[in-house]
Amino acid sequence: MTVERDLNGLEPDLFGVLRDRWILIGALAVLFGVVGFLVGSTQAIQYESSASVVVEDPRTSAIFESGSSSKPERYLETQIGIMSSPAVAQRASELLAESTTSSDLTAADVLSGAQITSQDSSDLITVAFTSQTSDIAEAAADAIVNSYLELRSSEAVSGFASALAELEESISQARAELEQIQAAIQAERGIENIRLQAEAEAALADLIQLQDDPEANAFAIAALTDQLQAIETLLRIESQQPELAALLEDQRLAQSRLSTLLARRNETAVDAELAGGGVVFQTEATQAERINPSSRAYAAFAGVIGLMTGVAIAYALAIWRRRVSSSEQPETILRSPSLGSVPAFDVIMRSQIPVANAPDSRAAEAFRFVTAALESQLVRQGSSFQGPRERMVLVTSASAHDGRSTLVANMAIASARSGRRVLVLDADFVTQGVTQILLPDGEPRAGITEVVIGASSLENAVKEAQVVPGIELFVLSRGSDLMGAQDIFGSLEAAELFDTVREQYDLILVDSPPLPTVGYATTLARLSDGVVAVVPHRTQVAKLEELNRRLSLIQSRRIGYVYNKAPGQTDARRTPKRPVSRDDEETSETELFEDSRVV
Fold first, then answer.
1. Helix H segments across 381-481?
2. CA nearest neighbour of 341 among 424, 407, 416
3. Lowest CB count within 10 Å: 100, 375, 389, 429, which one?
4. Per-residue pLDDT at 68
5. What is the pTM of this model?
6. DSSP string, 181-227
7. How many C-beta neighbours within 10 Å does residue 381 have?
């Protein structure tokens, strides 16, 4: 049967946790508050002052520069990085030493005390400095800004100077190259070409002079014009020679390059005069303010932290100590059906086995109902009580003193009374609780250990319980041999013993120690055909979750669970001896059954 896992009702209520754990929560809040007050009172006084600068990419103020950066925010980030650099911090330390005799701050101290930030969508950079004295805080903030300004100005001057020097060198190289080309051209043209060039230049000068003279003879102007055209024709024919044509093209390119370099030199000189260090505006350090919170503020903050911590711890404890409070809740954890509830025996009973000695009591009726439900589940899950299998049931629980032995004894009697041949196998080697209930005259000397090691036959080891005349109820206890339970139940002989008793009895109930805490209980679960869990009222949820984890790990067949010590169900015909307190839940089975009380 698959049960939907729903822990509603088991989760702790926050308001209930606050109500139940207010002392713990309050104590932690007070403790944290006191510690916070003490910490605050020991903190040194701190002062903070800030100065600011508005920066601008120098290229945005240049007349002939190609433009500013495509991402201005990167320029701002770069300037913040420069202002936070060791070089600026070192210079700021030197400026502080020059201006303030009481300052002994090193570059590392400047870096650790400064906080440099910028505002979104703004070129404003703020330099805040924290110190134990107001004078140092103000002076250090100004020193960092001034150090940055010096560095930026020095970089700007050196940058333009380097650029001009490179341009001058390039201009000299271009002029030398042009002179070489011109010399090569003259050598290629020869003396005749030089004469023609001189004649052309002289004719051109005469023509210009005649054109400027209003009284000049038109015939003379025409003659000079014809002369120039003839000379140019001769020079053009000469220039078409391949070697000379290449030299003339080189000359043109060299002249163009020289002109470009001369223009660039002039532009750079102008930009050097206009450009600054990249700082548009500067504000001096503000008056330093005390920034330390008071001891009360420390105490209040720590108290809030303590309050939150207390609530968290209280809630965690509540989760860890969750307890089941109704018979339906274990079903959501164990993922198995309820076989019924057994009342808390808060009344005086004559026996631990009311099924035998008080058959009309509500306790006896509850045990009979649980037994019927168990047999019904076995039939539903495949057992017909006719074949040799599916009839060995392990009864376990999440912890000790949960009433397993009492449940096994009463279920065995109820089943035997219905005509079944029942065997109780007492596998709890520590307490032997069910043996004490069904065989009050003492433990038999031969038992499970003797049968497994071959020292006794099964017939000699099994003892008949005389609790109710005429029923077939048998008990196989531990025995007197001191061999360990893990060695016994882990052997092949134990598996053979379990197979043998399946063939001889209609129902075998195995009283097992707690599954989560006793190792060999896992072996017993594997050897059995199904598991019934005993869940007392107010059992911790964490223990049930561990039991469920163990059952899932060994993949045991889950028949169901019995809700034990259920409140509000008593025999009206009997007078209560005293109510069951919470402390009774942690007592042993022996204590619970003293004075004929049944648990």
1. 404-417, 433-438, 448-453, 458-461
2. 407
3. 389
4. 47
5. 0.52
6. HHHHHHHHHHHHHHHHHHHHHHHHHHHHHHHH-TT--HHHHHHHHHH
7. 15
